[in-house]
Structure formats: C-alpha cells, structure tokens
Design a protein that fits this description.
The complex is a heterodimer. Chain A is mainly α. Chain A contains 24 helices and two strands. Chain A has helices spanning 13-38, 60-63, 65-98, 104-116, 121-130, 135-144, 154-179, 182-190, 195-224, 227-232, 239-250, 253-279, 299-316, 318-327, 344-349, 354-384, 390-402, 405-415, 427-450, 455-463, 468-496, 502-505, 513-522, 526-559, and strands spanning 329-331, 340-341. The longest helix of chain A is centred in the first third of the chain and has 34 residues, at 65-98. By secondary structure, chain B is of the alpha/beta class. Chain B has twelve helices and 15 strands. The longest helix of chain B has 16 residues, at 2-17. The chains are: A mainly alpha, B alpha/beta. At the A-B interface, helix 3, helix 5, helix 10, helix 11 and helix 16 of A face helix 1, helix 2, strand 2, helix 3 and strand 9 of B.
C-alpha cells in the first residue's frame, strides 16, 4: 500500500479492494443466503436443483386465507408505518439541521434510543399504558369518560412501529441536510425567494435521495418485524409471523423461504416506486464546502423547533421511559402503579451483566467497522462506477436486510455448521451475520450522500496525481462523513439489542445483552428484564453521545 | 484511518474464529425449561461433578429444535432439557437411546421409545382466570365452556403452530370433544403468536381467561397478580416435558452424566421448588399447587397427538383463517 506517493503506474488498489469485497460478499452473503432462498422452489427437505423445482411452496398464497390476509396486513402495516414515521421525522430533521437549537448532540443521541429498544419490552410498555387495563386507558375512562380505541390491531402496531422507526429518517435526513451546500439556498434567498419556496423547491428536492433511502429502511424494518405484531397484533398475522410458524413450528425452511421471497417481492415493488420518484431528481450539490449550512435563528422558528423535536422525542421514548420506570418497581402486580420502589432489580442482575455487555460491545463494534468499510466501498462502487448489473449489486446488499432475521439465522446455521468453513459456536458467526444483516444501512446512507457529491471533486484529485486510496481518504470519505456516521451509529445501536439471529447463533461463551434480556423474560422476571434493558439504554446513550461528539469533532478536523 | 480499522477488524475476526478448546469435562445443554430452573439445577450438578463445565443455551422449544435440526450434520449440543413431550415424540430420531440409571423410577408412559427421552416436569394445562375481571363463579369450568358465546372476546390462547403447549391444548380438546368445539373456540378466542403473552395478558387484566401451564399461574399469583387456576372438569392431560441426549453430540459421556443427574430425585426436588410438577411419583407436588393425583385427568393419547400434528394444524389454520 504505497498509495501515498503519486504513482505513474496503474493504480491496482481499487481492484484489490474490489476483489476482497467481492470475496466477502460471495462467501458470507450470496452463498448462504441464495442457497436458502432457492430452497423456496423445492419441496420441504429437498436440495435445490433444476430437476425437482416446483412452485408448490407458493401455492398457499393463492389458496389459504391466512396467507392472503398476512400479505395484505404486511403491506398495510409497513406502508402506514413508513408514511407516519417519515412525516413525523422530516420536520424534526429540518429543525435539528437548520435551526439553531441547544443540546444538538444530545438530541441526536436520544433519538437513537428508540432503535435500541430491547425486543418485546417496548410493545409490553404500550400495553401497560394503552391496553384494556392500561394506565392511560383507566384515567381516560375515570376522569373524562372516554373509551380509548383498543391498542390491539392495526392502530397499536402502526403506533409502536412508526414511533420506534422514525429515527432512521430523522438521523439520515438530518445528516444529508447538514452536508448540503448552503450556497444554493443562499442564492435562492438573494434572488428573493420566500423561505417556504426555498424549502419546497431547493431544500426538499436536494435531500429526496436521503429521504427515499431512509423511508426504504423503515419500510423494510416494518415489513420484517415479528415482535410488535406478535404482542400487539392479536390475530393480525403478518408475513414474519408465518415465517416463524414455518421455521420454529415445522422446520420447513423451504416454506419459510417462499414466504420470505414474497417479502422480497413487496420490497422490490417499493424500491421500484421510490426509484421512480428519485430518478426525476438527480442533483449534485456538495462541492466541497468548508462551512455548514446557515442556521435559522428567528424566535418563532426556534420555539417551533424545540417544541416539535422534544414532543416527538418524548412520545417515542415512552416505551423506554416505562422500561426504566418498571426497573425500579419492587412490586407492580395487578395495580395501576407500582406499590413499592427500590433497587432490588439492579442488585439482582448486577453480577450477571458484565460478560453480556462486553460481548455485545465487541460483537457489535467489529460488525459496525466491517459494515462501514464494505458498505462505503460498495456504495461508492454502486454510485460512481457505471457498470452492467449494478442493480444486482444493489439487490445483493439489500437481500439479507429484507429477509427476516430468522431466515438469515437459519441460513448461517446450516451453511457454517460443517464443510469448508465451520463457524457455529464462535463469535465470528455472530459478527458475520450482523455484518450481512446490517451492511444495507451504511450502503443506503452512504449511497444517498455520495450521489449528492459532485464527481468533479474526485476527478480533480485524480488529475492532480492522487491515487485512488488518497482520493478516497482525503476527498470522498470526508465529504460523505455525515452519511457514514449516521449509518454507523444506527448499525451499532441496533446491533446492541439484536435478537432474531442472535437467539439461533449465540453460544454459551458469546451471550449478548439481548440474550440476557430474553432469559429474564423467559423466566417471567419482567422487572429484572427491565433493569437489564435500562442499563442497555443508558449505555447506548452514553456511547452514542460520546461518539457523535468525538467523531463529530475529528470529522471537522478532516475538512481542514 | 480506514486501513487501520480494517486491520483491527481482520485481527479481531481471527481472534474470534479461534475454536473453543475442547475441555475434557464439558456438557452443552440446550435448555427449554427456563433459565430460572436451570440455575439451581446446574449449581447442584457442579457441586457433584466439579470437573464438568456446563454451557447452556436458553431458548424456546421451537428455536432449540430448529438449532438441533440445522446442526444435525455436526451437532453442537449434548442434552435437550425440558422440551414438550409432543415435540420429543415426533422427533425421536434426533436423540440417542440411553437407559438412565434411575430408569425404574419413571413411569413407562413418560419414557421415549428405546429410552430416547425421559419425562421431566409436568406442565398441566389449565385455565388462568383474572379474578378481578371475572369472579371465579362466572368463569368457564370446562373445556366445553370455552365454546360458550358468553365468553366471546374474553379468551386468549396461543397459536398451536408455534407453541408446543398450545398444540397440546388443542390436541386435548380434539380428543375430548372433536373439531366442533375447536371451531367454536376459534370463534371465541384470540390466538396470539407468543405463548408467554397469554398468561401475562391475563395477569395484567387485558383478557379475563387464558390457557396455559399451571406453574405459570401459580408463579403469577405468587408475584401478586389477581389470577387463579381452574382445571377443566373433563380432566386435563398428564402432559410432560422431557429431556434426552442429542444424537452425535460432542460430549457423549458428560451428556450421560448430566441426564442421569437431572433424573435423580434430588434434581426433581429442585424442579418442584420452581412451582413445576415432577413426573416422578416419589416427589411431592409443589407447595403452591394441589397434588397431581387430585387433579382431574383423562387418558390423553400423546402418540396420536404427535402423529396427527401436521394434519391437525393445517385444519386449525384453515378454520382460523375463515374466522
């Protein structure tokens, strides 16, 4: 790697990096996942081959009412959650990026917390509040005589999902807004355009790729979620519910793959629609500005921004607040409020927590670094290099993200249990599964950012004699740094409490925080689970806050 | 910066890839019986056999069977502990026949063919009633009552496709009353996709009645929730959870040691402390439970239940989707 000195010879580094990336993709993504997905076309237990292919596994989508209604439920739930989450997040993203607000880093760190929601606990909290015997439900009935709509069903699912997934849109879009070139907006202002007109015709179109990328993530997350519909859905089954039935109820991986493919199909449709919206808006704007976008400073704007952002945060943090609250409850059974408070739950879990926390940090940390490196490289390739089959690369990266975790988990378990590479029981299998499931976050977030950057910047650097590596390091990466950071923070935070592949792949020496929570839930120790959950929340908050301050500062240094 | 972090990642993955060194005395337990039960059991085992290191994977019956089947070509676990009897009956090919030391203390009904598994605890299925929402004299008293129109919307059950105990409930109702009653219950009850949601939601007052294992009811009552158990008047099945040695597991000798240990009277005394009933007739019922021989039971054919599982679930699924 002598890429620092200008070299007259051909620059081989991009090819080496490309080949390495390809190897990683083929070995850990394409091979296990594709093998499993192809299983959708043979009967249960058969090996995929041309000789015995069949559409039998898809038959039920045309025959069984459960399957038809699950497809319908899945689409309705994910579309509604995406729309609500996006509409909630956009004003907040604009406020934080463009209006002068105190505690900006703290707000960003807080907004990550809904993403760390320990599995299942969040949904339980909504029941504690809005269920038939919930706190809010009872007070609404006692004081105002209002009967609240039942939390079970579509209303509850969309409420829980959109409030826990809006941070994807918020974080990614505020990253894009902060990176945007202020000159265009200032020109518009100089030319006499009103603020509203600038927002509508300049600002919003410029961040459309970022909004689309973020909305896509919310859509896919909502489509693949099992826990919230399982607890709040009652009998409203979605496609992941059916996948769980097939995998854990019947070990019918072929049937599960078929359902997962329908999930993929729905996602492709959504990607297609979003891509059409996006195509009409292709702009390059980041031209290497060395200063941030101007921030609004008027009193009205600031009052609105603070009120809106803090209300949204408060609402979305309700489940986490409930978790923290119940972690201090010594006795909370059959009454509206706890009857006794104390630290007993923390004392109970104290000794058992260090190992899982350390494991989670190590596994999530390494996986995050991997997603950042390979996700950024792939995003760069996908956006900058025009080549045949670019859509295939996009699809490959997105595939394990679109597939519900249980499918990826089983694919890894079957593939790496014997043969050329045995990984079951190691930490590596968890890291790789995390990497494969989360690379799409960085890929999407960085793609959106790179498509904003003018390729002329990089060309100029190359013309001046810089190698590809130097150009990446000194030009491309610093320019898209906010996008990378947004992706990395999301990956790390969501991996801390990753549940669906962990439960299938963890081994005794690699128990994570999510497993620790699951174990408490399995023993009916809800308050203890809440204590572990609260520690997780606090830890993530501190880490993300520190990271965004530290990296935020060093990123600023990189511009100089 | 990129290069450095890349190197770090490469080194770290090498470190992580290092296989766990095979210790002479080690046993990997796949535990479906709940971590609260495993803790005292493993402590007692460690006291007796300090040379054997115990590793445990805690998960649900479904997840553990998924693991065992996916790992079949190279098994990673040694013993499956406390998974529902129906699941064992239908999958005996995954388990290693082994005649336990205390074989004679077990009723032949809870021992698998060729001694592939031994009964463990007895999760008798009962009605959990929230007495704050529904006084006991108004609560359903039999399986048959669950089909009564007056309970429409008040019952919560778990979907039998995912949960072993939920399938056990449906299989019992089928053997006692047939599909007629099951379809009435389908009209009355909400079938959720998570079995723990059932008793938790009844305890919290979201639903008045649910179907669950009786140890859950006692545990919730002891935590202070206003719940009571009602055993169906037609009788409930003498269902059991079981344990067996996973075929081809990495530590066959420690596996036998562990299985023999959890079959002892001493281990079953620990089981009982967690409100679970023991299959061993020489171990008394838990303090908070009525004695097993006073619970009305009926002759449940678990072999038939296991044999017809797929057909029954398909029909159930069909009926549920037409609701």
């Amino acid at each position: 790697m002598t890429g620092l000195a200008p070299s007259p010879r051909r620059d081989w580094l991009p090819w080496i990096v490309g080949a390495l990336t390809l190897c990683v993709l083929v070995a850990f993504l394409i091979y296990p996942i594709l093998k499993t997905v192809l299983g959708a076309f043979v009967r249960q237990g058969d090996e995929p081959s041309f000789a015995n292919w069949t559409l039998y596994n898809f038959e039920r989508f045309f025959v069984a009412a459960t399957y038809k209604s699950a497809v319908r439920n899945s689409i309705v739930v994910s579309v509604l959650s995406t729309v609500v989450a996006t509409l909630l997040a956009l004003p907040a993203a604009y406020a934080v990026a463009r209006i002068r607000m105190p505690f900006r880093n703290f707000i960003l760190a807080l907004s990550v917390i809904p993403l760390v929601a320990p599995p299942f606990i969040g949904a339980y909290s909504w029941i504690q509040l809005l269920g038939r015997s919930g706190i809010v439900t009872q007070y609404a009935a006692d004081w105002f005589g209002i009967t609240l709509p039942p939390i079970y069903g579509l209303f509850g699912i969309v409420l829980a999902l959109s409030l826990s997934f809006f941070p994807y849109v918020f974080l990614i879009v505020q990253g894009a807004l902060s990176a945007g070139d202020p000159y265009i907006e200032e020109s518009a202002q100089v030319m006499g355009a009103s603020r509203w007109r600038i927002l509508r015709t300049v600002t919003l179109p410029l961040v459309t790729p970022a909004i689309a990328a973020a909305a896509m993530i919310v859509f896919i997350k909502a489509l693949g979620n099992f826990g919230v519909p399982a607890i709040l859905g009652g009998e409203m089954y979605v496609l992941p519910t059916l996948i769980y039935f097939q995998v854990h109820g019947f070990f019918n991986l072929n049937g599960a793959s078929a359902i997962a493919l329908v999930n993929v199909l729905i996602t492709l449709l959504a990607i297609f629609i979003l891509a059409r919206i996006n195509r009409r808006r292709r702009f390059v704007t980041v031209t290497g500005v060395t200063r941030k976008a101007a921030q609004l400073d008027s009193l009205g704007a600031r009052i609105f921004a603070n009120a809106y952002v803090w209300t949204l945060l408060a609402l979305s943090l309700i489940p986490q607040i409930m978790v923290v609250w119940s972690s201090f409850a010594e006795r909370w059974a059959g009454t509206t409020f706890p009857t006794e408070y104390g630290l007993g739950n923390y004392r109970q879990v104290f000794g058992d927590l260090f190992q899982p926390i350390q494991n989670s940090l190590v596994l999530a940390g390494i996986a995050t670094v991997m997603t950042v490196i390979f996700g950024t490289l792939l995003a760069y390739t996908s956006v900058r290099r025009r080549f045949v089959g670019r859509w295939a690369l996009d699809l490959t990266v997105m595939l394990p993200f679109v597939l519900p975790g249980v499918v990826t988990g089983v694919a890894f378990l079957v593939t790496f249990n014997d043969g050329w590479l045995v990984l079951t029981g190691t930490g590596t299998i968890l890291v790789l599964a995390y990497f494969v499931r989360r690379i799409a976050y960085v890929f999407r977030s960085v793609s959106a950012s790179i498509s904003q950057v003018d390729p002329k910047m990089e060309e100029a650097s190359t013309i001046c004699g810089a190698t590809w590596a130097r150009t990446m390091r000194k030009v491309t990466v610093p320019l898209v740094a906010p996008g990378i950071l947004a992706g990395a923070v999301i990956v790390f935070a969501t991996l801390i409490s990753e549940m669906s592949v962990t439960i299938l792949l963890y081994s005794a020496s690699w128990k994570t925080i999510a497993v620790a929570i699951y174990e408490r839930l399995a023993s009916n120790e809800m308050p203890a689970a809440a204590a572990v959950g609260s520690v997780t929340i606090a830890l993530t908050l501190v880490l993300v806050f520190a990271a965004s301050r530290l990296i935020g500062r060093s990123m600023a240094d990189m511009f100089r | 910066m990129q290069r450095r972090s890349f190197l770090a990642a490469a080194v770290a993955s090498l470190v992580l890839a290092a296989p766990a060194f095979a210790q002479s005395g080690r046993v990997v337990v796949y535990n479906a019986g709940g971590p609260d039960l495993f803790k005292p059991l493993s402590e007692a085992f460690a006291q007796k056999y300090p040379q054997v290191k115990i590793d445990v994977i805690n998960a649900g019956v479904g997840e553990l069977f998924t693991r065992i089947r996916a790992e079949r070509s190279n098994p990673r676990g040694d013993v499956l502990l406390g998974a529902s009897g129906e699941a064992f009956v239908g999958n005996t090919e995954l388990f290693q026949p082994y005649k336990a030391k205390e074989h004679d203390a077990f009723d032949p009904k809870v021992v698998g063919p060729d001694n592939t598994f031994y009964g463990f605890s007895m999760p008798l299925q009962a009605l959990i009633v929230n007495t704050k929402l529904m006084p006991l004299d108004q609560a359903p008293k039999s399986w048959k009552d669950l089909g009564e129109p007056r309970y429409t919307g008040k019952i919560i059950m778990s979907n039998p496709s995912l949960s072993g105990s939920a399938y056990g409930q449906i299989a019992q109702i089928l053997q006692l009353h047939g599909w007629d009653l099951v379809s009435k219950i389908i009209g009355n009850a909400t079938f959720v996709a998570q079995s723990a949601v059932v008793f938790q939601n009844v305890a919290k007052g979201e639903y008045a009645v649910g179907l669950t294992g009786d140890s859950n009811i006692v545990t919730m009552a002891q935590q202070g929730f206003p719940v009571a158990a009602v055993y169906p008047s037609e009788g409930t099945a003498l269902r059991f959870d079981a344990s067996g040695i996973i075929k081809g597991g990495p530590n066959p000798d420690s596996a036998k040691l562990f299985l023999d240990f959890i079959n002892t009277k001493e281990a079953h005394a620990i089981v009982v402390k967690s409100n679970r009933r023991s299959v061993r007739t020489d171990v008394a019922a838990p303090a908070g439970q009525i004695p097993t021989n006073q619970v009305k039971t009926f002759a449940y054919d678990d072999a038939a239940a296991a044999r017809d599982r797929k057909a029954n679930l398909e029909k159930f699924d069909d009926l549920l989707s037409r609701k």
